[in-house]
């Protein structure tokens, strides 16, 4: 069997976002700088950010990363869905680093080992390794972090295929124990409703964003289950909300909402995007 490359090469640079470093940095900084500044109470410990191609969701993602511009974190705990089918509930990268056109991002192996131990001891769950994945939802956030933050950081990448409340909450509690006392930022990567008319999407998205604003991971999961709201990364959002609560989070602020119609002009079938900040 061939050895796994230590660095996960980007499968989406040049398509989902610019592949040229200077062009990418200019685009991302433009999205962040164009976002309206927000006055938040407390310290930002978590974000919710969309994950479509930058021409669609970049302006909304800019609102999420504007609130951490020039801040410094040692580790980013990045929670995303895994769109490809695999039977396991939780995944991490089999590589030692991610690569974007802006450079390599080392995975925090020390915290990853702690998380794996916490999961095994508390819930009997293992993180499955995945190599050479094509998952865009996690990677799409990385150039924003590379541009927004004031210094390099390590990455704790987690991909979620679990949607049941009990195992998600157990995972979140293990993640919170892992991160307790560290200088870490939680990020949940998710888009909102898919392929409804813009009027329908606005209603669905408004309901889902209200559940996020209420700091209700249970509400997020129920909205997805009964169709009153939609978020493809609802499991990742629920984990981040539960973990943030364990780490002292007490307020969620919705920063921005948009749909793909802003980029395409097509209001007959849109995808919704939202940005939020979690503070302690």
Distance between the termini: 47 Å
Question: Overall mean pLDDT score?
Answer: 96
Q: What gross morphology would you assign?
A: globular
Using DSSP, what is the number of strands? 12
Report the CATH superfamily.
LigB-like
CATH class category label: Alpha Beta
**Which bin fits the share of residues in helices?**
25-40%
Radius of gyration: 17 Å
How many structural units, i.e. domains?
Answer: 1
Counting DSSP H or I runs of 4 or more residues, the number of helices is: 10
Name the structural class.
alpha/beta
Taking pLDDT < 50 over at least 5 consecutive residues as the criterion, the unreliable ranges are none
Proportion of residues in β-strands = 15-25%
Secondary-structure element sequence? EHEHEEEEHEHHEHEEHHHEHE
What about the largest sheet? 9 strands, mixed
What CATH architecture would you give?
3-Layer(aba) Sandwich
> What is the name of the CATH topology?
Protocatechuate 4,5-dioxygenase, Chain B
Core attributes:
alpha/beta; 9-stranded mixed beta sheet; Protocatechuate 4,5-dioxygenase, Chain B; 280 residues; 40% helix; 3-stranded mixed beta sheet
How would you portray this structure in words?
With 280 residues, the chain is of the alpha/beta class. It has one domain: 3-Layer(aba) Sandwich (Protocatechuate 4,5-dioxygenase, Chain B), CATH 3.40.830.10. 40% of the residues lie in helices and 23% in strands. It has ten helices and twelve strands. The strands form two sheets. Strands 2, 3, 4, 7, 8, 9, 10, 11 and 12 form a nine-stranded mixed beta sheet that branches. It has a three-stranded mixed beta sheet with strand order 1-5-6. A hairpin with a 2-residue loop joins strand 5 and strand 6. Helix 1 packs across helix 2, helix 7 runs antiparallel to helix 8 and helix 8 packs antiparallel against helix 9. The model has no long low-confidence stretch (mean pLDDT 96).
